[in-house]
Amino acid sequence: MLPTQSEMLRRLVATPSVSSPDARFDQSNRGVVDLVAEWAADLGFTVRIEAVPGADGKVNLIATLGEGVDGFVLSGHTDTVPYNAERWTNDPFELTERDGRLYGLGTADMKGFFAAALHAVARFEPGQLRCPITLLGTADEESTMAGARALAEKGENLGRYAIIGEPTNLAPIRKHKGVFYVRVTVGGKAGHASNPALGVNAIEGLQRVLVALLSWRDGLERRHRDDDFEVAAPTLNFGRVAGGDSPNRICDECTLDIDIRLLPSMLANEVLMELRDQVASALDSGSWSFDVRATGDYPRVFRPRRCRLPQHRRDLVRMFS
Ligand SMILES: [Zn+2]
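Above are the sequence and the zinc ion SMILES. Below is the predicted complex in structure-token form.
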């Protein structure tokens, strides 16, 4: 007998699964995966629990109901962010009802999804499925994405459609912008401020780069647009500039960190190549060296941008609400 949704959620919340780049807070997600795996098995799912390479104590859950290909995926992450106990009005690991709401660490983001997904699947007769349903529970979404990365590297075809149960205030979101960070480093040559001819000032090189990238950004905005997004254009934010050590020295190195948000139709590699070309031509007439690379970071807090769901897909979502 499957526990009720709130009983499932109570047990999931009571099982800590904090993930954090800070080892003092980082925990295994095995307990949460074991619970979901047990309930999925009771519903007839074939359950796999796979260790995530390079992440000690972290596992992914891949549970499949039915046979065939091109199935339907219900995807969630099993970890939570760390917490500040003193800022909670109840024990974060004890599901507490107040004013018709349930409070507990990871209730909305996103342990509640597993309880909802399992109960949604329980309505189907497994023998009547025309394609398989796969329930995914990944590790470390809140920290390194190690779980999702391990799945992506395996390249296994998990299904044709997916619902990712992230909290969005119940507004269906069907597209997401991509994000990556780029670091531009301009190299010059140090020297004394009294004789500019003896050095190459990296800050002056970066100034040329900034002018070129601002105009390139305007072009990107003109070329790419998707009105489904609140911010319809791709964005390019110059977030950090660092370089130099003293007013009386010629700066020999200067870096610029950029946050780029792509529309679904854009490819990160192509954008990075265009950006590199812009930097190269901006510095063409001087003696600067340069380096342009994606730094592989991603923001911890990333707010999805709303976009409307076409009518014909709303039925699918209603099934799970
Ligand atoms: Zn989440």
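Residues 297-321 have pLDDT under 50 and may be disordered.
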